[in-house]
Structures are given as structure tokens and as C-alpha cells.
Amino acid sequence: MGVSAIERVLWELGEKESRVEKFKADPDGYLAGRDLSDQERRMLKEMDVKSLVDHGVSSMLTMMAWPLIHGVDELPFDYLTQMNDGTLPSMGLKPVQHFGLRTFLRCRKIWWGLVGKPNKKSMVDM
Fold first, then answer.
1. Of 103 and 24, the one with more pLDDT
2. Residue closest to 105 by CA, chosen among 48, 49, 67
3. Nearest to 49 by CA among 74, 17, 22, 16
4. CA nearest 87: which of 96, 78, 75, 97?
5. pTM, entire model
6. Domain segments of the chain as ranges
7. What is the pLDDT of residue 79?
8. DSSP SS3 for 25
């Protein structure tokens, strides 16, 4: 039990996409046999990044694992909100700018779902 066991799980998730899919499909099965307390298992299953960091886990690992589990579109908002006790830090933006940026990211996600996400080669050729 402890920080190193949690960090090992987070690191493993970052090594292979198939591990992320296994974790998302069956978190209890993925964590079975690991030397984790019930509280540590809960923090990992819920990806409770604030509790993980407060427990001593590297914030760099939690920031790496968050988009693997939740996707990148909500990373700056939901991750920072959770790390900031439920409040989105201003990041120098006004509330309407936060709303506009979130709306843009959601529209982009919908657009990519309709027409397909551009690949790196097509982005370079543009």
C-alpha cells in the first residue's frame, strides 16, 4: 500500500492504450491483486486527482492520467476544477471567456465526430 503502488498504476496506464481500455472497462479487475488500500482503490477508480495528490501522488502523473481516462477536451477545465476544490481558477479569463472556450472545444469535438479528426499529415499539408 502506498504512493508507489498508485504511481505504478498511473504510469502503466500511460504506457499502453490497451491498459486504459481495460481499466475503464473493469477498474476493480484491473486493480485486483495490487497492494492498495480500499481508499487508494476508490481514489483511482474515481480518478480523484485532488485526493491522490493530497495522498502524496505526483501531480504530473495525475495530470498525465486524467486525459487518458476522461479525454483531452475537458482537461484544462475539469482537472483544474477538481484540483482547486471544485472551483475553476480564473487563469486570467473572464467567465464568459471560459464559456466561449469550452463551447469551442465541444463544437470541435462534434465537428470531428461528423467529418473525422484531421491526422498529422493532413495538418502539415494545410
1. 24
2. 67
3. 74
4. 78
5. 0.67
6. 1-71
7. 72
8. helix
